[in-house]
Write a structure and sequence with these properties.
With 289 residues, the chain is α/β, with parallel strands linked by helices. It contains 15 helices and 6 strands. It has helices spanning 28-31, 45-55, 66-72, 76-83, 93-104, 106-123, 130-141, 152-159, 163-169, 174-177, 184-190, 215-230, 233-236, 259-262, 276-286; strands spanning 62-65, 85-88, 142-147, 180-181, 198-205, 243-246. The strands form 2 sheets. A 4-stranded mixed beta sheet has the order 4-3-5-6. It has a two-stranded parallel sheet with strand order 1-2. The longest helix is centred in the middle third of the chain and has 18 residues, at 106-123. It is globular, with a radius of gyration of 19 Å. The N and C termini lie far apart (39 Å).
Length: 289
Amino acid sequence: MQKSSINSRFTAPTEWQPELFSASGIFSALAAVFPLAEQINFPSPELLTLWLHQHTRLQNWSFVDSTVLDADGRYYEDFIAQSQQIPMRLNNWHDLFGALIWCLFPKSKQQMNQLHMAQIQQFGSKERTRVRHKLTLLDECGVLLCIKPSQRFIVDLLRDHQWTHAFYQHQSLWDELKPIIFGHANYEMATRPFIGLTGKLWCIELPEQHQPLTGIKGYNFVDDLLVKQLVQAELLLDNQQLSPLPLLGVPGWYTQQDQAFYADTSYFRPKRQQTNSSKATEASAGNKA
């Protein structure tokens, strides 16, 4: 565990570390679907394409070396939309996890690409709109939490930064909640976890009678729910979505989760009180796409 400043520049390991996928914790969900612990090197674009075809209907899609994009000259989102090829840097943790998220959430990733393209066609690629900013936050840092009506109080606690209450006092409930990492930068930074590691919470509501699904069936189910949310601009721009979530506080994602850990306000920060002027500014920003 690095006692790193929150603002320090993160540097991922340069070497392949299959042992990350052999232990319980934040990477166990990936290890349950992909044979990552068995690999002796970073998975290649060809192997990742094989996994993409095994787990999704994107049979004409593929991962390619990012040098293909460099030589092509098209904008990243435009290249993906037109070629059905997803560029990735070789031997790179960030892009590896990005590829795995494509394998797990193909519909949502396609929808996000289409939303980016629609925004680019309307506003151009130089200025990032609020919609594209939200899409990027979800893509890089999103953590999906599927909740039933009876579990809604946990979301309220998290959004109110009642961290000890949400994580520590209701620790047993998280075995049922099973949050899902969507943002691939979360996985990358978890290769060298540090105090300050924070994702963005995205909530998906379930019917009370829902029975959890496991493995790829579970991912397919959540992918269907998420893509339905993404087409609703009001949900994407909802200021309650994408609230901060200290990743090391999620039960099971870190080892030293005692009460003293959650009392560290340098990481588990109390909610900042909004002034009338900041509320007015936020409301004004919400009217701009």
